[in-house]
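Hypothesis: this fold can be encoded by more than one sequence.
Test: take the structure tokens below, design a sequence, compare later.
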């Protein structure tokens, strides 16, 4: 069984590491997809540091596409 948690982000640099670490503490069948709407605060670059973990995935969108 696999499950994925989708985390939509825009300017979440203050919170994203805590969110990722919290989800990564859950059972290993749970993966994370962060969907970042081109956050000007560098949220995506923080998530990129976690991409060596095969449970973390990142979708970078070119502009803000709406609310989660």
């Amino acid at each position: 069984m696999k499950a994925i948690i989708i985390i939509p982000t825009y300017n979440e640099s203050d919170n994203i590491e805590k969110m990722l670490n919290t989800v990564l503490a859950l059972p290993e069948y749970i993966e994370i997809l962060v969907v970042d709407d081109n956050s000007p605060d560098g949220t995506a670059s923080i998530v990129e540091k976690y991409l060596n973990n095969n449970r973390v995935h990142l979708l970078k969108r070119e502009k803000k596409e709406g609310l989660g």
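The mean pLDDT is 93. Helices lie at 16-24, 43-48.
Hypothesis status: open.
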